[in-house]
């Protein structure tokens, strides 16, 4: 992922906004006043470089992105982005009327709906096995499983393109050993998307696994022991003790993974260029392509649609998980 | 009997975990081995595992013909600058937000929290227009400045500094030290673990960053490694040289994996406590 998609961890302490005011010096009120004025000044000076860079390179683009999306700005308007004409919601109308965009929205949904559960499932299984199941080589497995996460998606996509080659690829060769005639994974409209999903899960499950491992630390061993004495099976204990206690962690991980997957971009760009027949083009790729054509206003509108979907999905996941607790 | 059953199920667990381990590591091993194979061998059916005749030609071409040395330098320079910027600026704001009272503190904090999850996809178009108008497309500042501070970094440092005891600051204040001195001489020396986590995660993020360098570097002189690799692998006019591609992927992956293996404890702790990717 280009930008990290972090959020507050359920295992970290809650942010303490309403904390007692620190650093008051006992003394006369005027002295106290002077002290806090100095502190205020110091705080602003300390925040100044951040605020400047932040306003210019983050806040401003977010706002002007919304502005761009209601104009017909193109690459030739680069020098005078405010001399363009206002077109209202025309770009948005065009976005939803565009067949390739609808295809890209479908592909993105496919990627998220299958990819997130698959990634989390693998991650949870690995975390459970490493947490309780085994004693030896725990660090080795943990480090190994996490390794793909630190590698560049572009590089990973390059490697997998070779692994998935129809004839000389490792995957089909191994399938051949057990008598399966593997398809042309990336060249098939049926198999291209599943290939990308499996690759993304392979690369990303390590993050979720580490967060699950941290979450599992908070499940008291005593509860498991008590349930085991009462005759609860391993599955029952998982279902009725571990899973409910892991709910906040699951919420957090499914949101961050979902937000990341909604923006998937490098995988189709490097492995399939969105093909075959647009079967793997993602919303991000669609935005990038429109940007490449110089349609900045239209591109901004597509990116805002994605943004709204991300915000809505995050909110929805919060509601679903909250209401069940 | 019960213990016997659990021993055998444990054995199965080891088998499954080992298979998973092999599945995770094999693509990387295959990449490294493939980068030493000649062009003909890479197209063989069935594929070979160990190189029949190991060659360094791929790396020679990569660095001589394709100027990957330059891209390597670009990636490193950008990542180092971005990391240093985040360490300095984010810890400054983090301290202000964690330990100081000031008017507008809530606004600053909400700004940080509200923009934690903004995807780069949303901002890159206007950011490109802005940076182009500043004349910074195809320049190092253009690659570095937008990432010099991150809301995530501020959040991480605030969470870390808020856990440091107030008594230390009070002691400094009673002695008449300025807030800047307290920050430099009391807070920063205690921030080691927080800064290490932030530094490692920022470096990693920058090294693998793709979208922004892809649009902000228009000529080869400013390509970073992932950009060069992606454009090289999707090039339309040249038949892809498989060996060079694998060597390129190795050059992108291996340094960061080595960094990861050295600092793996801190990496994993950082992920566990912050949940960043």
Question: What keyword list fits this structure?
Answer:
heterodimer; A: mainly alpha; MetI-like fold; B: about 280 residues; mainly alpha; about 75% helix
Give a brief rundown of this model:
With 325 residues, chain A is an all-alpha fold. Chain A has 13 helices and no strands.
Q: Total number of β-strand segments of chain A?
A: 0
- Which range best describes the helical content of chain A: under 10%, 10-25%, 25-40%, 40-55%, 55-70% or over 70%? 55-70%
How far is it from the N-terminal to the C-terminal residue of chain A, by CA?
31 Å
> Radius of gyration of chain A from the CA trace?
25 Å
What name is given to the CATH topology of the domain at 119-323 in chain A?
MetI-like fold
**Mean residue pLDDT of chain A:** 83
The secondary-structure element order of chain B is HHHHHHHHHHHHHHH
CATH architecture of the domain at 119-323 in chain A: Orthogonal Bundle
Percent strand of chain A equals under 5%
Top CATH class of chain B: Mainly Alpha
Largest sheet of chain B: none
CATH topology of chain B: MetI-like fold
State the oligomer. Answer: heterodimer
- Which outline of chain B best applies? globular
Measured by residues with Cβ under 8 Å of the partner chain's Cβ, the largest interface is:
A-B, 118 and 120 residues
The CATH class label of the domain at 119-323 in chain A is Mainly Alpha
Order of helices and strands of chain A: HHHHHHHHHHHHH
Provide mean pLDDT of chain B, rounded: 86
């Amino acid at each position: 992922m280009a930008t990290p998609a972090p959020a507050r961890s359920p295992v970290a302490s809650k942010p303490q906004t309403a904390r007692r005011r620190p650093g008051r010096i006992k003394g006369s009120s005027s002295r106290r006043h002077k002290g806090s004025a100095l502190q205020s000044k110091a705080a602003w000076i300390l925040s100044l470089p951040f605020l400047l860079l932040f306003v210019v390179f983050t806040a401003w683009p977010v706002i002007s992105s919304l502005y761009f999306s209601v104009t017909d700005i193109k690459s030739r308007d680069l020098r005078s982005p405010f001399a363009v004409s206002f077109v209202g919601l025309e770009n948005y109308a065009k976005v939803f009327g565009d067949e390739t965009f609808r295809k890209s929205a479908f592909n993105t949904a496919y990627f998220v709906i299958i990819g997130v559960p698959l990634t989390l499932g693998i991650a949870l299984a690995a975390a459970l096995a490493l947490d309780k199941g085994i004693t030896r080589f725990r660090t080795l497995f943990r480090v190994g499983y996490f390794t793909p996460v630190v590698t560049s998606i572009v590089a990973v996509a390059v490697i997998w393109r070779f692994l998935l080659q129809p004839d000389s690829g490792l995957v089909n060769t191994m399938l051949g050993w057990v008598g399966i005639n593997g398809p042309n994974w990336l060249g098939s409209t049926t198999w291209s998307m599943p290939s990308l999903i499996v690759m993304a899960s392979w690369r990303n499950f390590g993050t979720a696994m580490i967060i699950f491992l941290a979450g599992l630390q908070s499940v008291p061993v005593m509860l498991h022991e008590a349930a085991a004495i009462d005759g609860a099976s391993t599955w029952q204990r998982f279902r009725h003790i571990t899973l409910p206690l892991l709910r906040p962690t699951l919420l957090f991980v499914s949101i961050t993974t979902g937000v990341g997957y909604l923006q998937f971009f490098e995988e189709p760009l490097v492995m399939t260029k969105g093909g075959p027949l647009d079967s793997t083009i993602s919303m991000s790729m669609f935005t990038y392509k429109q940007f490449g054509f110089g349609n900045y206003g239209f591109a901004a509108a597509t990116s805002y649609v994605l943004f709204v979907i991300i915000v809505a999905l995050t909110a929805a996941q919060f509601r679903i998980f909250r209401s069940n607790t | 009997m019960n213990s016997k059953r659990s021993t055998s199920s444990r054995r199965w667990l080891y088998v499954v975990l080992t298979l998973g381990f092999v599945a995770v590591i094999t693509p990387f091993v295959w990449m490294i081995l493939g980068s030493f194979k000649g062009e003909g061998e890479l197209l063989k059916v069935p594929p070979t595992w160990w190189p029949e005749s190991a060659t360094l030609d791929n790396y020679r071409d990569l660095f001589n013909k394709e100027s990957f040395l330059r891209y390597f330098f670009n990636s490193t320079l950008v990542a180092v600058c971005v990391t240093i910027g985040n360490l300095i600026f984010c810890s400054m704001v983090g301290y202000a937000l964690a330990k100081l009272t000031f008017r507008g503190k809530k606004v600053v904090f909400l700004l940080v929290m509200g923009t934690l999850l903004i995807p780069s996809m949303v901002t890159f178009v206007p950011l490109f227009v802005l940076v182009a108008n500043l004349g910074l497309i195809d320049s190092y500042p253009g690659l570095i400045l937008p990432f010099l501070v991150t809301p995530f970094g501020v959040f991480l440092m605030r969470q870390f500094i808020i856990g440091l005891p107030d008594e230390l600051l009070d002691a400094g204040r009673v002695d008449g030290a300025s807030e800047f001195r307290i920050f430099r001489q009391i807070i920063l020396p205690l921030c080691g673990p927080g800064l290490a986590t932030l530094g490692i995660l920022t470096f990693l993020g920058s090294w693998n960053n793709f979208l922004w360098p892809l649009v902000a570097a228009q000529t080869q002189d400013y390509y970073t490694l992932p950009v060069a690799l992606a454009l090289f692998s999707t090039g339309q006019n040249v038949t892809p040289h498989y060996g060079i591609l694998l060597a390129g992927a190795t050059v992108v992956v291996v340094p960061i994996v080595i960094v990861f293996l050295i600092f793996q404890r801190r990496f994993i702790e950082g992920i566990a406590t912050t949940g960043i990717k």
